[in-house]
Amino acid sequence: MPIALKQPTPSIVTAPTTSPWMHLVWFGAAGLFVSILAMTYGLDLSPGFF
Question: What value does the CA radius of gyration of the chain take, rounded to a whole number of Å?
């Protein structure tokens, strides 16, 4: 059978849908991560600090 006539498998056809809430969660997590990075900028984390 030619490749163009093969039916795709169901796992490819039914891609999972992402809810808008998950987008907000990911953007919030990214914002939190960047905020933590900005707050710790210049902080001495050498072994002597601990």
Answer: 23
Q: Is the model more confident about 47 or about 24?
A: 24
Task: Write out the chain in H/E/C secondary structure.
Answer: CCHHHCCCCHHHHCCCCCCHHHHHHHHHHHHHHHHHHHHCCCCCCCHHHC
End-to-end Cα separation, the chain, in angstroms? 66
Q: What is Dmax (Cα atoms) for the chain?
A: 68
How far apart CA 39 and CA 35 sit, in angstroms, is 6
User: In this predicted model, what pLDDT tens digit does every residue of 11-46 receive, in sequence order?
Assistant: 555 555 668 888 999 999 999 999 999 998 888 878
